[in-house]
Amino acid sequence: MTDRISTGNPGLDLxxxxxxxxxxxxxxxxxxxxxxTTLALQFLLDGAxxxxxxxxxxxxxxxxxxxxxxxxxxxxLAGVELFELASAEEVLGPGREQTVLHxxxxxxxxxxxxxxxxxxxxxPTRVVFDSLSEMRLLAQDPLRYRRQVLALKQFFVGRNxxxxxxxxxxxxxxxxxxxxxxxxxxxxxxxxxxxxxxxSRRRLQVQKLRGVDFIAGYHxxxxxxxxxxxxxxxxxxxxxGSFVGDPVSSGxxxxxxxxxxxxxxGTCTLITGPAGTGKTTIALQYLYAAxxxxxPSTIYQFxxxxxxxxxxxxxxxxxxQKHVDSGLLVIRQADPxxxxxxxxxxxxxxxxxxxxxxxxTIDSLNGYMAAMPQEQHLLLQMHELLAYLNLKGVMTLLINxxxxxxxxxxxxxxxxxIADALVLLRFFESxxxxxxxxxxxxxxxxxxxxxIRELRVDSQGIRVGDPLREFKGVLTGTPEYIGxxxxxxxxx
Length: 492
Hints:
Rossmann fold, 2 domains, nine-stranded mixed β-sheet, 26% strand, elongated
């Protein structure tokens, strides 16, 4: 169908491939607090902004409550006609005292008649009916309720109105009404999830939409000032792109040599090792070199504070602040307790598509994992995100902390398989000092060194030494010295 009507929400319109087919009946369902009223108001306000007559029929909330919701988003309902059943007397009239018919039969019949009268008067092109739970209670009998809903659908046929029926599921024991699903042209479900810690998560799913190729599955959303922020699920295959594939230099020749000149654009490099080995420092070196070349870069910090990061970079002689001031470098502090994975993917897309980001760093994957309720979802979403970045020619650096200091290391995630290059950092003991070693375990995009070299990070920046040929068992943390020379680097 080509004749579409916007929902008033850009993210939802993207999921629906442009919006809702016009002049149809739709169901918007979800538990209280999931964002139904906010989305319904966005739908009507979009129509009002285009000069369309709109109508909000409320059986559950008062007009004052609706205006309070609108005020919280800085909205004005001046262009929206509000109709509420303010009192029982208005609905029941003189028939409420009679005894021949059950009172609920009179209530429901008069309620439907009032709704039909106001629709004939306003002649709206967009209608919100909030909520079906009240009608279900008035009907008492399921068969009578379904007949009335069908009658409402038939009433709107030919009246050039797109109708949104809201159901909060409270009068149905929290269960979805499958009859309504078959009756409506489309069904949109909102959910609110409470995690063990942090803010609640909200998500959206289009259950069905006849004649439209929509994006299926769950999509994260958040209620913000100004309405619902919907983050469509990222599907890498939907994004065409190409990249040159040239090496990305860190500005340190010895470091670049480990990866045959540097990681290639459109690839992902995983830097893994225990805390304190220099994972973030190496990432900062790549970011600084990219900014020096005039390439927009971004780092998302899940663990370390931005102030600490800047102090560390300054101690290495890297002036990140000048690139932050120029706009070439964006440093974002990410709070996993408040950010959903869908929102994070949307932020990354904005950096790539709006800023032209060429180098992206995520520090660290442990912090990113904290934003996920289940680990398997992390691997799937990270795979899609990396595939998208690869298609866009972005060089990605992932920081993956491991448990332990020396000897056998372990991590909470087995994610190395999705990386194109894997850089391993280790502590080892020698001459009464704790030293660092660096090696490259794999590089899908080209050749790499198979040597183990010493790594030093000091006021001179990053230094990579000669291969540790005089040692055996460096990766165990307690190597054996088998040479006669002194191969280690000294302080400067």
